[in-house]
């Protein structure tokens, strides 16, 4: 038994490298192994990973186009030109817009912002928006988190008297826009050494260059926005991103801006230290919700707000929007799950493709991700709105969903994305063809083993290593996120002594295990469905993560189970053979087994 049939994959050990890092850095061997699993193998590289600081931030002058961007913005400031920051409607774009608005204001300029509507204009730069911005008196537009494919729009802006400075982090496609400057570490010939900045990360580099050119201090006070947008956009938390997020979290917990303090309060974080998990699952979704459900402008206004009362009103509005987003997503997920489970064909397909009128296009990406978790196969969810299919796709390792959509381009009106996520527009009458073609492609590229979810184990631990010392050292690996996930460990042959259901809805399992002279009391969130399959005195292998915590002002070791499986049995078809010959608890186990439950039991004894 595993909780959801996952394959456990343990990272290969490198004893020599582990010993070197452990001794030279004064860390536990298992922590050294985790660093190696992250690709961090050198001593100095590991030292920087464990101690992110300001010296790890790269000079913005390295980025191609930075000099031209600074000169044009500086000229606008000197002439008193009106500048508009044109952003995206997600948390990355929202934080980037707020960051550059505040930077321009600090330099004495006038800056407004424009965020397109997900439902009216859609993602990216649009001619109509540029026309409106020009008519309202602006002469310079700085894009954030968008614009790298806006070739026609940039030419249009030039014709109507608008200059564009483009800052983006998405992969360029074809010729770059003819803008005053393009800042994107992924563009060809850009010497910037770190390629995986978020949109707000690129905006921060521009802000830093502007402040340095003006003889002002580097805008470290804006790093809280960088941390929030970077974590929310799910770029790798390695290299410079790791330093940016770590330094930004220090600012959030030290002296938070008024808007973030208000938002933290309404989502229940006022008395807790905020970490990357809080950004990813509490603050980020609340900022994203505005753009998903309607207008993203309130999210920018919250980040710029300095009046506590107005900030509270905006924060409560975003909280309500996020609740609406959750409720809407839950409803669509339940409907989509029911469609798949009721349709034998859909349940057996390697790509799940669903479309329905009335589904909210702002939340289908989240629903698609949840369906991937539920069924572990690529998913395409399409919301049909006024005769147009707006879709979001999510995938699994081994199937590049954007490449697959490219092979289906004749069926689509528009599409774009990366390996594991994409967006698309399609006529509703072409959905059936898309479903069939995607499944033909997946049939060639995905084997049965690819459709089995995986549990990645950083290292296997003997019982005595599951302790507070390890939990404390693991905190040095934060912030956790994409590229640096919360470590999951394996430990074998723990005897199950008892369990109980906990939580308001009795949805979670609290278990009690023993091994030799040690005991372990982990929690398994949402593990209640496993309870009928548990048996006392059985031996189980555990997959879990560790965290140091406190209870009644005393240190405690928090253990959260991610998966478990029986280790004292073998499966032969419908027969499970349990070997308890050498176990002192075998009589108790037999008594438990024969005392109830379904199925039969065969007892075999040998001398």
Protein described:
By secondary structure, the protein is of the alpha/beta class. It is built from 20 helices and 21 strands. The strands form five sheets. Strands 13, 14, 15, 16, 17, 18 and 19 form a seven-stranded mixed beta sheet that branches. Strands 3-2-4-5-6 form a five-stranded parallel beta sheet, with helices on both faces. Strands 7-8-9-11-10 form a five-stranded mixed beta sheet, sandwiched between helices.
Round the Cα radius of gyration to an integer and report it: 27 Å
Strand residues, percent: 15-25%
Mean pLDDT: 90
Gross morphology is globular
Task: Supply the number of helical segments.
Answer: 20
What class would the helix/strand composition place it in? alpha/beta
How many E-type strands? 21
The separation of the N and C termini measures: 29 Å
Q: How would you sum up the major sheet?
A: 7 strands, mixed
Helix content: 25-40%
Could you name the ranges where pLDDT drops below 50 across 5 or more consecutive residues? none
């Amino acid at each position: 038994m595993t909780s959801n049939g996952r394959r456990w994959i343990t990272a290969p050990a490198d004893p020599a490298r582990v010993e070197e890092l452990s001794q030279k850095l004064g860390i536990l061997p298992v922590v050294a192994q985790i660093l190696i699993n992250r690709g961090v193998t050198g001593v100095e590289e590991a030292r920087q990973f464990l101690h992110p600081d300001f010296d790890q931030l790269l000079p913005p002058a390295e980025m191609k186009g930075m000099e031209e961007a600074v000169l044009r913005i500086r000229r606008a400031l000197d002439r008193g030109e009106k500048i508009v920051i044109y952003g995206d409607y997600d948390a990355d774009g929202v934080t980037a817009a707020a960051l550059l608005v505040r930077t321009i204001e600090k330099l004495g300029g006038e800056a407004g912002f424009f965020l397109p509507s997900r439902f009216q204009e859609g993602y990216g730069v649009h001619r109509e928006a540029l026309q409106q911005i020009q008519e309202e008196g602006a002469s310079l537009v700085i894009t954030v988190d968008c614009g790298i494919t806006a070739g026609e729009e940039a030419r249009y802006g030039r014709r109507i008297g608008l200059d564009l400075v483009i800052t983006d982090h998405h992969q360029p496609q074809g010729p770059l826009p003819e803008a005053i400057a393009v800042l994107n570490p992924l563009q060809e010939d850009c010497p910037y050494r770190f390629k995986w900045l978020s949109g707000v990360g690129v905006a921060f580099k521009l802000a830093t260059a502007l402040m340095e050119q003006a003889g002002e201090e580097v805008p470290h006070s804006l790093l809280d926005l960088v941390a929030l947008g970077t974590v929310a956009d799910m770029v790798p938390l390695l290299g410079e991103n790791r330093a940016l997020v770590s330094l930004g979290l220090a600012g959030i917990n030290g002296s938070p801006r008024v808007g973030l303090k208000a938002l933290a309060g309404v989502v229940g974080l006022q008395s807790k230290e905020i970490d990357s998990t809080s950004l990813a699952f509490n603050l980020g979704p609340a900022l994203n919700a505005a753009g998903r459900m309607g207008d993203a402008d309130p999210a920018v206004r919250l980040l710029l707000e300095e009046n506590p009362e107005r900030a509270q009103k905006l924060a409560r509005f975003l909280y309500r929007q996020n609740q609406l987003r959750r409720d809407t997503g839950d409803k669509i997920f339940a409907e989509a799950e029911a469609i798949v489970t009721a349709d034998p064909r859909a349940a057996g397909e390697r790509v799940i493709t669903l479309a329905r009128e009335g589904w909210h296009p702002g939340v289908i990406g989240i629903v698609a991700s949840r369906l991937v978790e539920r069924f572990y196969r690529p998913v395409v969810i399409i919301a049909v709105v006024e005769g147009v299919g707006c879709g979001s796709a999510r995938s699994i390792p081994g199937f590049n969903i954007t490449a697959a959509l490219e092979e289906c381009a004749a069926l689509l009106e528009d599409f774009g994305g990366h390996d594991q996520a994409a967006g698309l527009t399609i006529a509703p009458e072409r959905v059936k063809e898309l479903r069939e073609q995607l499944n033909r492609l997946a049939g060639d590229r995905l084997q049965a083993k690819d459709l089995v979810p995986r549990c990645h184990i950083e290292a296997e631990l003997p019982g005595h290593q599951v302790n507070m010392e390890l939990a404390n050292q693991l905190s040095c690996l934060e912030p956790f996120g994409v590229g640096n996930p919360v470590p999951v460990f394996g430990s074998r042959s723990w005897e199950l002594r008892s369990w109980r259901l906990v939580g308001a809805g009795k949805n979670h399992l609290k278990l009690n295990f023993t091994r030799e002279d040690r005991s372990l009391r982990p929690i398994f969130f949402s593990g209640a469905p496993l309870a009928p399959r548990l048996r006392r005195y059985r031996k189980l292998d555990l997959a879990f993560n560790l965290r140091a915590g406190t209870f009644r002002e005393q240190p405690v070791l928090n253990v959260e189970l991610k998966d478990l499986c029986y280790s004292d049995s073998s499966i032969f078809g419908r027969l499970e053979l349990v070997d308890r010959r050498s176990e002192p608890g075998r009589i108790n186990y037999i008594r438990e087994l024969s005392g109830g439950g379904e199925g039969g039991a065969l007892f075999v004894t040998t001398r």
